[in-house]
Design brief:
Blueprint (H helix, E strand, L loop, with lengths): L20 H31 L8 E5 L4 H14 L3 E2 L3 E2 L8 H11 L2 E9 L3 E8 L4 E5 L2 E5 L5 E5 L10 E3 L15 H17 L5 E5 L7 E6 L4 E5 L4 H15 L6 E5 L7 E4 L1
Parallel strand pairs: 1-5, 6-9, 9-10, 12-13
Antiparallel strand pairs: 2-3, 4-5, 6-7, 7-8, 10-11, 11-12, 13-14
């Protein structure tokens, strides 16, 4: 049997006002505008909370690894300098969420000589800074000029004699040398050798105290160690330190009756010892 489909008439409630297409479009536009405004308000509120709320401001700077008041004050001054101002004219630099640890690290390393520097953010509003001071291992001395030298052979900074804080041997090339702060003046190989020799003397030969070292510019493999008893000994950095120092001690015990009469001991050749009396 053939089925016929009849199109149903649409009936509208006669008591409700008839809505045309234009009214419907206006209603939809109003809803969209309302939603957009609402989203903008919500995002603006979140932006304000994340950027300007006092919750995120840096309120405390903790410095550990040193007891020096001067160093701690200098670090905090640099932190204050870095957290002043705005990023892109909008975001406060003292907001811990956006604060640049790399910028601060570069600023500190540019102004303070340190062996190690670590900076961490800690909620809420705390910067934790851990430092390891770069300590000198030698003092470069020419006439009345004094400079701290670090373990890499780099000049750390100039000092007056009365400002010297560390009891370290003096060292130079034996000739006038241009000294530039921040530049390398000694090879690391020489520095390592000197540190080992001094440690061995401290542990095994306490009667021998070195106060001055000379590394000749023309032959840096030879090191001259001047003692506080007005005699010196010469070592070659390519030789075995233990063998050289044992030879030094053996000679003093067996051959030198009065150490005050000794001028120098030459230990540059491992199987031979040369010495001279005054």
């Amino acid at each position: 049997m053939e089925r016929k489909f009849v199109k149903k008439n649409k009936y509208q409630n006669p008591f409700l006002p008839k809505r045309n297409k234009l009214d419907i479009d206006k209603s939809r536009r109003k809803r969209r505008i309302f939603l957009i405004v609402l989203i903008i308000i919500i995002l603006g509120g979140l932006f304000y909370l994340l950027v300007y709320a006092s919750l995120w401001k840096i309120k405390k700077v903790s410095v550990s690894g040193t007891q020096k008041t001067e160093l701690i004050t200098e670090i905090r001054t640099l932190v204050q300098k870095n957290k002043n101002g705005l990023y892109g004219w909008i975001i406060p630099k003292d907001n811990i969420l956006f604060f640049s640890l790399q910028d601060l690290k570069s600023e500190i390393n540019s102004n303070i000589v340190l062996d190690n520097l670590e900076i961490r953010k800690k909620l809420f509003g705390t910067l934790e800074i851990t430092v390891e001071e770069k300590l000198p291992v030698l003092i470069w001395n020419e006439t009345n000029d004094y400079y701290y030298i670090d373990k890499l052979g780099i000049v750390m900074g100039a000092r007056q004699f009365e400002q010297l804080e560390f009891d370290l041997p003096f060292i130079n090339h034996g000739t006038t040398t241009q000294v530039i702060v921040g530049k390398k003046i000694l090879d690391e190989k020489n520095i390592d050798f000197v540190r080992i020799v001094l440690a061995e003397l401290e542990n095994k030969f306490r009667d021998i105290r070195v106060v001055q070292l000379v590394v000749p510019e023309m032959n840096k493999n030879n090191l001259y160690f001047y003692t506080d008893q007005s005699w010196y000994f010469i070592l070659n950095i390519d030789n075995d330190i233990t063998v050289s120092l044992n030879n030094l001690n053996r000679l003093i015990e067996q051959k030198i009756e009065d150490i005050n009469n000794l001028e120098y001991i030459d230990l540059r050749i491992e199987d031979k010892i040369f010495y001279k009396l005054k």
